């Protein structure tokens, strides 16, 4: 079985005007245990990440203000969280969970973070519930420590990974691929190495066809020795802000395409869960659990 980063502080209250489901961070591990997809020994909790690893992708002045709780009110409104000392700990633990999971994936093939996927956090700013970019930090960590020489970031959240694109805009060893809603947040997009914008109401057939035509060729051309997968489930037709029309089965097939391809090429994968804002929490849990079910079958 595969390692899963989890810590109780992953669940964190947001401003009242942004009360999207955060209970998934508690309920998803319970579902995985109930089904036998994971056992208690699969879960690990990380200490807060060291700041040098954070500075490798985020500007020092911004990162220091994050951990010291000195972001302005305007910055926090853009992020959507309430600023408390526990928030900095949460962000650093999430980032370290992704770093440690990435290192473990070299042995297990795949590793997960129950949270993470904080792809809107850029070099010197946070937004959209993202303060420190966990997969960007982990990708840079692998490069800096000689664990990988070419990294592919596959971002299939409905929102463009603008922060990730900005961080790696001038880093040829990281290829950023984002497939997202063209009319959705963020409304000012950054430029990834490959962006595919999808129209509102895109459903399973079109979504899976485009992904199936794109990703194998991308892996063949980029030749990554590590993949980070941002597996947001806000592409579902039930999502309150996603604007897509994918079904639970389509979302599951998406995960299968990504993970089977990585397995076929013996490329280790770290998977962070990303967004999901359906009205019914059970649908969010089911969609996220499908990613783990697919991984358990393939790996």
Could you describe the 3D structure shown?
With 299 residues, the chain is of the alpha/beta class. α5 packs across α6. β1, α1 and β2 form a beta-alpha-beta unit. The mean pLDDT is 95. The protein has one domain: Arginase, Chain A (3-Layer(aba) Sandwich), CATH 3.40.800.20. It is 42% helix and 12% strand. It has ten helices and eight strands. Strands 2-1-3-8-7-4-5-6 form an eight-stranded parallel beta sheet, sandwiched between helices. Belongs to the histone deacetylase family. Keywords: Hydrolase.
Task: Chart the SSEs and their pairings.
Blueprint: E1 4-5, H1 24-35, E2 43-44, H2 51-55, H3 60-67, H4 73-79, H5 85-108, E3 110-113, H6 134-144, E4 151-155, H7 162-167, E5 174-181, E6 194-198, H8 204-222, E7 226-230, H9 248-264, E8 269-272, H10 281-298
Parallel strand pairs: 1-2, 1-3, 3-8, 4-5, 4-7, 5-6, 7-8
Helix pairs in contact: 1-10, 5-6, 8-9, 9-10
The CATH class label is: Alpha Beta
In the sheet with the most strands, the strands line up as 2-1-3-8-7-4-5-6
CATH architecture: 3-Layer(aba) Sandwich
Largest sheet: 8 strands, parallel
Order of helices and strands: EHEHHHHEHEHEEHEHEH
Fold-level CATH name = Arginase, Chain A
Report mean pLDDT, rounded to a whole number.
95
Tell me the fraction of residues in β-strands, as a range.
5-15%
């Amino acid at each position: 079985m595969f390692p899963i980063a989890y810590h109780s502080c992953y669940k964190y209250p947001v401003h009242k005007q942004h009360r999207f489901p955060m209970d998934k961070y508690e309920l998803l591990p319970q579902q995985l245990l109930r089904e036998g997809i994971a056992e208690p020994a699969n879960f690990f909790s990380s200490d807060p990440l060291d700041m040098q690893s954070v500075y490798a992708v985020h500007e020092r002045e911004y990162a220091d203000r994050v951990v010291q709780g000195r972001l302005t009110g305007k910055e926090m409104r853009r992020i959507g969280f309430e600023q408390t000392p526990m928030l900095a700990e949460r962000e650093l633990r999430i980032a370290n969970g992704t770093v440690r999971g990435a290192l473990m994936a070299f042995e297990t093939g795949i590793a997960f973070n129950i949270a993470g996927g904080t792809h809107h956090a850029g070099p010197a700013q946070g937004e959209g519930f993202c303060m420190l970019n966990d997969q960007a930090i982990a990708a840079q960590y692998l490069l800096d420590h000689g664990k990988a020489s070419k990294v592919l970031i596959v971002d299939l959240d409905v929102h463009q990974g603008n922060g990730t694109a900005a961080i790696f805009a001038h880093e040829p060893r990281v290829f950023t691929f984002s497939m997202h809603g063209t009319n959705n947040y963020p409304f000012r997009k950054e430029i990834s190495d490959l962006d595919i914008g999808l129209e509102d109401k895109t459903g399973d057939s079109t979504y899976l066809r485009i992904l199936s035509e794109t990703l194998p060729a991308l892996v063949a051309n980029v030749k990554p020795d590590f993949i980070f997968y941002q597996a947001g489930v806000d592409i579902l037709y039930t999502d309150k802000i996603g604007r897509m029309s994918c079904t639970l089965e389509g979302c599951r097939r998406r995960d299968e395409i990504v993970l089977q391809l990585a397995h076929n090429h013996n490329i280790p994968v770290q998977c962070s869960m990303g967004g999901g804002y359906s009205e019914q929490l059970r649908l969010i849990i089911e969609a996220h659990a499908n990613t783990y079910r697919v991984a358990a079958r393939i790996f």
